[in-house]
Structure formats: C-alpha cells, structure tokens
Amino acid sequence: MGHKEKSRKDKRLQEISLLRTIPYSDHQRWWSKETIAVVTGGNRGIGFEISRQLADHGVTVVLTSRDASVGVESTKVLQEGGLDVDCHQLDIIDSSSVNEFAEWLKEKYGGLDILVNNAGVNSNMGGSDNPVENARKCIETNYYGTKRMIEAMIPLMKKSAAGGRIVNVSSRLARVSGKRNRIENEALKEKLSDVESLSEEFIDETINSFIQQVEDGSWKSEGWPQTLTDYSVSKLAVNTYTRYMAKKLSDRAEGEKIYINCYCPGWVKTALTGYTGSVTVEQGADTGVWIALVPDQEITGKFFAERREINF
C-alpha cells in the first residue's frame, strides 16, 4: 500500500470512528430487543466484536461457535457486560449441525432477522510459498459453509418492513476487478462480472474446477490469483454468490424482503491473520454492523469496505 493510499485509508478510519460515536435516533432504529441476529464464528476475533457491537445497539445476538465450551465462555464475557447474547454450537461444514441449529433457533426464537456469515478459515498467512494443499478445506468452509447457512436461514427469516439482512464477511483480495491479486483469465472474469447470467451451477462448477486444478498442479497456468490463492478464490465465490442471491431474492413480496451484501473488514489483527493485521477488531467489525443495521435503505448485492461501496 502506497503512502497516499494509506493516508486516505487512515483518514477514512478516523471518520468512521467519529461516526460510531453518533447514536442512531429513535426513528432510525428499525430493530429492538426482539430482533435476532445470528453471528457465525462469534466466539473470537471479528465475529466476537460484531456480536458485541450488535448487542450494544440493542439487538439480541445468538453467537455460534464450533467449540461449544469456547462459545459459552465468550458469551459469558458479553453477558457480564449487560448485553443480550445467547450461544449455540455450530459447525458450518456439517449439514447435520446446521440443521440442528436451525431447529433450535426456530424453537427458541421463532427465527432470525439478521445473519452475519463470519465463520471462515485462512490456510496460509501470505507466505512466499503460498501453499494451496488445504484448498478443498478452505473452499468447503468459506464458500460452501456460508452457502449452507444462507440456505438454512432464509426460510427462518422473520417478516419485517425493514427486511431480513444477510452480511457475508469477505475480502478485497477476491475482487474480479482488482488490480492486485487479479484473475488473469479474461473469459472467466467476464462471466463472473455478468450478474444477469450468473447461476449457482456456474459458481459451483468454477470453484470445483479450481480445486481440480490445484490437485493436478495446473492452477497457476489457469490464471488464478497468485497471493493467498485458496482464501482469495473461496471469497471470490462468496462475492459472486452474494450477487447471485441478491438477484434471486429481489422479487420477494413487501414485508418478506431479504437484503444480502458482503464486506471486507480489512487486514485485521486476529488469529486468522496471525495477528499481523493493521486494523483493530473494532474497526474491522464496524462496516459489517453498519450494513446489518442500516435504516431505510434497500441495499442489496453490494460490496463494502470502510462504510463505502467498492467494486466487485
């Protein structure tokens, strides 16, 4: 990152810090204590901070964790701060775990209003060797796990004038239009950019082709991103699926609308980045919370960073 670019980003983060000090007015608050937000991977890092911020705004948060005992301990920390937070075990790569969670959520809360898909893995930290041997696991968690949760939670979204909200945590590294870490295959870029022709089958086929090319050693010559490759491709799938789902959900009736967006939290100081990040968890969580709660705006199928829309 150049000096000028870093200065602009630092200035924007300072502006956001000021914006966070301004409370929502009563007429902006479409939510209440009865509003239920589910945050996957909420036991630590960005997920924990998103849970804290949403609860601090007055939303009831269900924090999920693959390790049940860790989830309980994280929830206690937030509850001791006076926040309305519950927890439940959830492994997003396990269909039976997702189904069990969905049944529990429906029985206890009658559904949900907000879903934040935060749970994910990063199999490498950007080392020069850029290992891809865990590509299948990375894709299975970051893309198929997110997709699995969306499919399971959409039927449980409560009817609301404000609409259901889905927020997918993603990355700038996965932008089709990005100058850095870009896809070199122009034909693939064109197809990924055409939202009107996107299909779930095409996204799955593209990702499965990547996995096969990793396993046969041809992924470099096929023009995939050269840095944090498996992570970048997994988030590319999330971004593309977000746009596809936004279009698919756009014709839902009033009162049953669901808005889905994704955002990049930045290179955050968490376990996922080996604590090498340049952004605090508070800063990293902010845009996700902002999208989840944004009032009186039908925003869907967009990609955000630092509370601003960016190109896919």
UniProtKB/TrEMBL annotation:
Classification via InterPro entries: CBR1-like, NAD(P)-bd_dom_sf, SDR_fam
GO cellular component assignments: membrane
Keywords, sorted A to Z: NADP, Oxidoreductase
GO MF: oxidoreductase activity, acting on the CH-OH group of donors, NAD or NADP as acceptor
EC number per UniProt: 1.1.1.-
The family this protein is said to belong to: Belongs to the short-chain dehydrogenases/reductases (SDR) family.
Record's protein name: Short-chain dehydrogenase/reductase
Organism: Pisum sativum (Garden pea)
Taxonomic classification: Eukaryota, Viridiplantae, Streptophyta, Embryophyta, Tracheophyta
